[in-house]
Predict the structure.
Amino acid sequence: MNNFITPIVKLSNIGKLFNNDNIYLKLESTNPISHTFKDRGALSVIKQIKQNKKSLVLAGTCSNMGVAVSGMAAKYGIDSIIVVSDSAPNGMINMIREFSTKCIIIDGGFDEIDQFIQKISKKYPIIACVNTTMNQYFFKGYYSIMDELSVQLDKNKIYNLLVPTADGTLISSLYKRYKKLSKKNIMPKIRFHIVQPSGCSVLVDAINNNYKIKPIKYANTKVIPLSVKNPSVYGYSAIKAVTKTNGFAIKVDELDIEKFTNILTKNEGIYSDNVGGVLLGAIYQLLQKIDTNEIILGIYTGNGLVYSCENKTRKMKSNKRAKKMIDKILKGKKDV
């Protein structure tokens, strides 16, 4: 994967539909394991685990991260325990089951899974845990997207970069790397834009309301990968990426997401998940705010393949039962 660069494609047919000839996507769906940008973070984590001579990785997920981590771990000969939300699509759970040493399904969304993993990590601090002890390496894995853009983009042009956002990790990582590369004078000017579904738009609402993050109790969205209710860890750095580059915070109405997902799939041959629908809906809105000659580049983070996989029977564990299962696996291990 070290020499693999995801392509940038022009949305020619959608450009005609939207009356704009400057719409592009960077297809993170072409990453080889999870077919999402999460492969980058997973590769960074697993390499560090190998360097530290550890034998196991733990991760909690409700979407693509579990696929990326378990698949990358399998590739590099590392055992993996993946705790996954019962709200995850069948395709993701099927893939995690095939890749991982142990897949445990529990009740809850992103925030609940993260809280569960935090407790496990606190009990076993020597474990290489993606959500806690290894999180910094996952974050740094996304730097490679901006490294690629530094050679793919025209330094003399201005770009509007739209980033589908959940907890703010991706856009924060991209902006941090962008600042560093800009000092080397190898980057074009980029305006960063946060994109979220209206049913879970905590960061968009914060930017449009005095920059204060107000966690929500329920994520009323079907866009599971973007359903973070409390993006407190990376939220403010994500907001900074937007405000410091004069970007916009855009939320797409839940009722429009399926329509834009279908437009992307049927007009460009990109088999999209609903995150892609959120992204295209935001692009449509952004066109109303900028000049027609400005370049739009969306980070297309995933794909629709995992949503179409054959179902397998899933057996959910209670949190208490899940903890006992993990305890049984981890007790007595010296090299985890």
About this structure: The longest strand covers residues 189-197. The chain is about 45% helix and 15% strand. Residues 38-138+310-330 form a domain with the Rossmann fold fold (CATH 3.40.50.1100). The radius of gyration is 19 Å.
